[in-house]
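Take a specimen:
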Amino acid sequence: MTSKAPRWSPVAPTPGPAAALARHAAAGALRSASAALARLARRLAARSAAPGPDPRLEFYAEAGAPEGALYLDGELVGWLPGVTRL
């Protein structure tokens, strides 16, 4: 039986300076993108968390008004058939 030296080594070869520079540039770009996305997420969360006025539901069954008309914040959203008052 012949003994051969292994062709691999458990120690990884050290990358050259160009590979290290590229890796550091990529890491910097990813950190910058992450910071920008975090700022955008905080801005969007603050905007959506701002409380708005409660929706206003209105029903009109007055003379001259469409009978059974249902409005939400002043916009017609539907009709209640057969209903003349609530």
Remarks:
- The longest strand covers residues 75-79.
- The chain has two domains: 16-50, 53-86.
